[in-house]
Every structure is written in structure tokens, then in C-alpha cells.
Design a protein that fits this description.
By secondary structure, the protein is of the alpha+beta class. The chain has six helices and four strands; from the N terminus they run H-H-H-H-H-H-E-E-E-E. The protein has two domains: 2-61; 67-198, Nuclear Transport Factor 2, Chain: A, CATH 3.10.450.
């Protein structure tokens, strides 16, 4: 419970910081545009700087994803949450989670991800410890678009950060490090599906 409060507190501080930064950046851009407009404009009419100042915030606000892109992001978030939530006591490997997420994956990706990945050594020491503790590993997924290619009507690419927490009884442990993946979401018929996951 303490770890959850810490995570929520950190996220709240990050969000407040980002909002404050974006407000200050916009104000600086508007002031910079107004200053530049007044020094280069020989006309005494104040309409030129006002027009420039109004257009800068409008351009910044256009970064909101379209409804289609938001739908694709929602599918990616849901699929990755299921794919990175594990039940080591009953799952043979992490790939079992991809089987649970199959409805949000393209057929070709599902075939690649839902393979039996067991080796002679097994999935690892940590997996065995979680299984012994009857732990559940819960994923929290955030989707971002930092340096993403431009969206099309049928393809959306995003960056996902997956934070995992192992929960056993009343104990919680943060799984380190976070996992970052690039996802390609494609529109097939009237559905968005994840077609590629790159680490």
C-alpha cells in the first residue's frame, strides 16, 4: 500500500510539473512572438502581433491525438496491460499473458508471441519466487508519442512504458526496471489491433 501511495505521489508531482512547464513555455512563446512582431513590423497597428500570438497557442493545442488515434492508444494500453500482467503460480511463462491479450493482437503477432518459450532452465529465479509466493505481477501502462511517425488512417505508432508491481498477499514490490516498447497499431476492418511490439 505504501508503494502505491509513493507511485501516485510521484505521478502527481510529474503531472503538475509538466502542466506548469507547458504554461510557462506557451507564455514565453507568446511574449517572444509579440516582441519579434513589434520589432520587425513598421506598422503601428497592434493587430500583427496579436495575430501571431493567437496562432502560436493554436498550433500547440493541435498536438491532441485524433479520436481514431485515441482509440488506437486505448487498445494498445488495454492489450499491453493484459500482456504484461502475469500469474507466475499458474502461467508457465510470460508468454501465457500474450494468449490472454490475443483479442487485441493481429493474427501474425499473436502467432509469434504465443509460442512456448520454455527452456531447459525455465523462466528464471524471480519467476519461481513469485510462483512460490502466489504473487500476481500487475502492469500499469502509459502510452506516449515522443518522436512518433505521423499517424495515418490505418497505422498509429506509439511508445509504451510498462511499470510492474508484484503483489503477494498484502506485500507489494516494484519490478525494476520499467519496460519500454514501441508498438504499431493497425486498423483491420473496424478494429484497432497491435501488429508489432519492439523492445
Amino acid at each position: 500500500m505504501r508503494a502505491k501511495k509513493l507511485v501516485v505521489g510521484v505521478l502527481a508531482v510529474v503531472v503538475v510539473g509538466l502542466v506548469a512547464y507547458s504554461c510557462v513555455s506557451r507564455q514565453d512563446e507568446v511574449e517572444g512572438s509579440a516582441t519579434a512582431g513589434s520589432t520587425t513590423t513598421s506598422s503601428p497597428a497592434p493587430t500583427a502581433p496579436t495575430t501571431t500570438a493567437v496562432s502560436s497557442p493554436s498550433a500547440a493545442e493541435i498536438t491532441t491525438p485524433s479520436a481514431a488515434a485515441q482509440a488506437a492508444e486505448d487498445i494498445a494500453r488495454q492489450a499491453l496491460t493484459v500482456a504484461f500482467t502475469w500469474y507466475p503460480a499458474t502461467d508457465a511463462t510470460q508468454n501465457d499473458a500474450y494468449g490472454r491479450a490475443r483479442e487485441w493482437l493481429t493474427e501474425s503477432l499473436a502467432e509469434r508471441m504465443v509460442v512456448d518459450a520454455r527452456t531447459e532452465r525455465g523462466p528464471g529465479v524471480q519467476w519461481a519466487q513469485w510462483a512460490d509466493q502466489q504473487a500476481k505481477v500487475i502492469a500499469d501502462v502509459s502510452i506516449e508519442c515522443s518522436g512518433c511517425p505521423e499517424d495515418t488512417d490505418t497505422v498509429v505508432q506509439r511508445v509504451a512504458t510498462i511499470k510492474q508491481t508484484a503483489v503477494s498477499g498484502s506485500d507489494t514490490d516494484t519490478v525494476e526496471p520499467d519496460t519500454t516498447v514501441w508498438v504499431t497499431i493497425v486498423r483491420e476492418d473496424d478494429r484497432w489491433l497491435i501488429d508489432e511490439i519492439r523492445y
